[in-house]
């Protein structure tokens, strides 16, 4: 019998929840404060803790920190009020399995608890079994091209991939733009029983409301003006395999409704057809936005969110991956040498210092582009700071960050001497108006992209250009 500890200072809620879970076969203990909850944990081993976020003597954040530190194999679910949902999402990033929002609904509670306990059991079995994965992790690159880091953040990421890949769970991948969400989705697919079937990626951010239905579901010839031939939709193309939906938060509300029906019924019907096609598709979605905020604003359907939310993976930004930056840079250098036919062997110490100090708003994608560009323009076998863009070679950490360490991995370099300013030299070489205009355009696009966390749809709106034009300008400026 699985043992659950409920920590909630609202006695009535704890009693009702205890009775409900007991009727469903769980061994339940209740505590009315954080301190009494810790005392119970000292005396007994629990499979799961349900902890209210707001307690009289402490809060959910502190309880989670204590439980993860002292009882790492015990799962934690946060019970939260409506106003605390944003905080609950942050707690998930800290290691909580999930959250349950008040008012409490029996089906949701039971489903969340069951999945949490199954996950805990799988983790225990994974830790105890001497699987071949331990050998694979000694390599720096998996067969599908995903780079394995050595930081705690990366190890946790790949542990989650290995855990969820063999299942049929739908997965939400949360992460900043450029952090490698599609690569994680591919890795999940390649390590699943669907690896021999299609992996179809779809950029929801580039879809117009008019084209979205046709792209998702397909259409028959002549079903509408411009339908000159039969088109197979992405769901049908991915049948038997995995459908990856990137920037899912940008879908219109109407398309979300149609998408929900397809996901629920596991059937798809092309536009203009009466024939329904059975689907066996695993869905992985990615977003760099807070979907819970979008739900509260009425921009994203809550029922669709819960269909996708069977497992969440938080993809850490590059700046939180410490020593992984060095490993990734060396990997991208090898790729760039192969692509460009160059023989650049290493980075100068000053370049590595710049890489470790820089905040990488464009994440892994930005690092890859920087290394690729530096490999192309470098003279000799070493990449020096002269080959780096000015925003990296001249980057200065804010004063409040001096001496800090990244969240994981090795400490930042402690020397903060300003790099030689090449801007004056650059300006001397760019007197003509065309180059001055291009440089101003580059800096404007980069500034706006950083302001919106590299969300290209929002950036295009602010810049008052369409998304395709933004893509072209980013490509021309080596930002993509």
TrEMBL record:
Sigma-54 factor interaction domain mapped to chain residues: 147-376
CDD domains: AAA
InterPro entries the UniProt entry points to: AAA+_ATPase (IPR003593), AAA_lid_NorR (IPR058031), CheY-like_superfamily (IPR011006), Homeodomain-like_sf (IPR009057), HTH_Fis (IPR002197), P-loop_NTPase (IPR027417), Sig_transdc_resp-reg_receiver (IPR001789), Sigma_54_int (IPR002078)
Domain Response regulatory, residue spans: 3-117
Pfam families: AAA_lid_14, HTH_8, Response_reg, Sigma54_activat
Name the UniProt record assigns to this protein: Sigma-54 dependent transcriptional regulator
SMART domains, per database record: AAA, REC
Positions bearing 4-aspartylphosphate: 52
Source species, domain of life: Bacteria
Coiled coil segments of this chain: none
Family matches, as Gene3D superfamilies: 1.10.8.60, 3.40.50.2300, Homeodomain-like (1.10.10.60), P-loop containing nucleotide triphosphate hydrolases (3.40.50.300)
Keywords: ATP-binding, DNA-binding, Nucleotide-binding, Phosphoprotein, Transcription, Transcription regulation
